[in-house]
Amino acid sequence: YPLRRQRQMCIRDRVVYADWGSAMQALSYEAGEEDKLVVVIDEFTYLLSEDRSISSQFQKAWDLVLSNKNIMLLLAGSYMGMMHEHVISAQGPLFGRTNSAIYLQPFSFAYTSGYFPKYTAETRVALYSIWGGIPGYWNRLDPGISLSQNMVTQLLTPNSPYHFEPRLLLVDHVQDPSRYVSILRAISQGQATVTEILSLIHI
Questions:
Q1: What is the DSSP letter of 16?
Q2: In the prediction, which pLDDT does 116 show?
Q3: Do 26 and 15 touch, CB atoms closer than 8 A?
Q4: What distance in Å separates the CA atoms of residue 158 and residue 2, rounded to the nearest whole number?
């Protein structure tokens, strides 16, 4: 965008709006005839966690205000279940209003050499086996220390965010994660067969 428009947007970013409808109305005034206004709302699922009606508010704003403006609205979210429910699903308020849905895939193993150049190939295989290809997980690791040290600081330290990650991932895909948490707990305690797991969780 022209520098003048960038400066105007920076000033208006400091304004606090009463609701999302007012904010969307203000955005509609910024849309030009030639230059497309691109609006990115990151972690849309955080908004949904605070207020489940947010997707309905966005639907109303899009239908009544933004759909006929030269605006591209990008909604990004970490939790696929919530994004599918509110944005992509036929039952979601925003269904039919998306031009494209992009599912960002994890990095392949090949990228580990660039992120962790000091690690041997064997160590990077172990790292990828534990953390997969999620960039957010990799960013928490310290490439200056050994993999074992990273495992201690990241996985075995009290109050580590990883302690809550399994439950958060389950909640993203199932309504009641308690049974699945019990199965994972049984496996962590050394139960290896179906019979052993069932006997421990009493299903």
A1: P
A2: 95
A3: yes
A4: 49
